[in-house]
Amino acid sequence: MQAIMETLFDIVYLTTVITLGFLMIKGNKGNKQFLLFGIMAVVLGCGDAFHLIPRSYALCTTGLENHAAALGIGKWVTSVTMTIFYVILYHVWRLRYKIEGQKGVTVAVYALAVIRIVLCMMPQNLWISAQAPLSWGIYRNIPFALLGLLIIILFYRTASQKGDTLFKWMWLTITLSFAFYIPVVLWSGTYPLVGILMIPKTCAYVWTVAIGFNAMKKEC
Fold this sequence. Notes:
220 residues; mainly alpha
């Protein structure tokens, strides 16, 4: 039952975000903000597919434990693409609110992203092992969490200041995604049921993409 339900959920999720992404790329009418948002959605969906498709295959065949290498590589790809997702979202923020300067913020965003990606590349992560170390899962997620926190603050402050009703909940979608993701990183190895939090985390990302898509329909 888990295999069927999880696979169906993943199909709906991947189809939704990738489709919305392509619709935004095609229908932005020259608005760079929504073009970037569309690219961001496609990066999100395609990156997650590297992990979710092997996971669904494993669940529907011989089990997760027999596909550790494929699942690990998928997690690695997803870790990198999720980092790129937030860098693109940062530039969406700059375009939407016509932000000039603030080089320090840009340096911080890219520095955290580079640190995160470098940590993801370290062999100590043991991506293809069934016993990947928790310590490195924490190390690589520290800069990622800080990057997410920075993006949350930027959208919360600016959307409030500008009275941007279309993007007023963007900060909340990101907050929820991290609130559901962090327990999975910390405790899913010991308590497998914690992994179910990936479902609301995924729904938070769909909400993020839906915010951009709905804004495009109203502004383009």
